[in-house]
UniProtKB/TrEMBL annotation, chains A, B:
Residues 33-52 bind DNA. SUPFAM superfamilies: Homeodomain-like, Tetracyclin repressor-like, C-terminal domain. PROSITE patterns: HTH_TETR_1, HTH_TETR_2. The keyword Hydrolase does not apply. It comes from the Bacteria. InterPro entries: BetI_C, DNA-bd_HTH_TetR-type_CS, Homeodomain-like_sf, HTH-type_TetR-like_transc_reg, HTH_TetR, Tet_transcr_reg_TetR-rel_C_sf. The keyword DNA-binding applies. It holds the Pfam family TetR_C_6. This is TetR family transcriptional regulator.
Amino acid sequence: MPKVTDEHRAARRQQILMATLRCVAVEGLHRTTMADVIRESGLSAGAVYGYFKSKNDLILAIAEFGLALMDTELRGLAKDGNVPSPDEVTRQLTRAIVRQAESQEIDITKVVIAVWAEAVRDEGVRAIVSERIRTLRDSYAGLVSAQQAAGLVDPDADPLHVTQVMVGMLPGFILQRLVLQDVDPEGYADGLAALRR
Amino acid sequence: MPKVTDEHRAARRQQILMATLRCVAVEGLHRTTMADVIRESGLSAGAVYGYFKSKNDLILAIAEFGLALMDTELRGLAKDGNVPSPDEVTRQLTRAIVRQAESQEIDITKVVIAVWAEAVRDEGVRAIVSERIRTLRDSYAGLVSAQQAAGLVDPDADPLHVTQVMVGMLPGFILQRLVLQDVDPEGYADGLAALRR
């Protein structure tokens, strides 16, 4: 397939995904329909269905979009044999969240919360989301093991438990940022660092 | 007013609140209407409106219900001059969350997530919810100051930052419990304890 076609496909896919994010940010996930996304995208129904066969395909794409960002950040932190401390990881991940939220036309974190709410309500969405969060946790668990080997985290601890807490801090950051609007990456990471001294 | 009337009022109020929780757990908060709550409660419209004038009154009652549980737990932990460690507080609060989720006909944590999603989408709901979360954080901040005085947390840290992280761990616990269904209070508290050693 010629390269221009791949680029064209990627751009179209992104166009539909952004239309979905706009719809979800306003209407919530539950109320957003394929018809809404088609209208918002400015494309034909046939064009949209060529990329996403159902609303669940769109939800999967949103979940992957959000988690790919976290995963890329984690890989960047752990490269060249570098082992960052838990509070340093929290600092970089929350910075990445804010950067992403502020750089796009739509604050992706608002959409992420809509996806959580739908995952709790709907079993199909839950299956999609839980698999993706597990993938993120697996990447994180690798980092925790490296932190244990480097003496940054108690080597006798169960890496899963440490990972649950470390990943578990991120939703509360996102929520406090959106709802109370008084939290920032530096303070949040400093708070964790204080607990570790 | 005679005592029986107060009791009657409290029972009626609780009956309407439980009907609301059932509606929200199934439909989400956004789609639940006063008409749904009236139908589900089995009471007349006049009776329901006598207790809750609008959907926002119901949301406020849900937010207060959830946060009152946390607040009662925090007060219980800090009584008689006792100062629990951060991981002990996390252990007791997550235990209280699970106990409450499992003891009622409706898992209140599912409704809490619906309230978060609506708080992000709707400014009126956000005002209600942010005030209530701030109240919880204020109670928690008092505990953090006591932990600092007792040498359990770095006394030079900003108590607000420590509080943001400690409160910020709870949404991630609730989400992992509902979506991945593999987290429990003991592991979560142990994970935090490992980060503090």
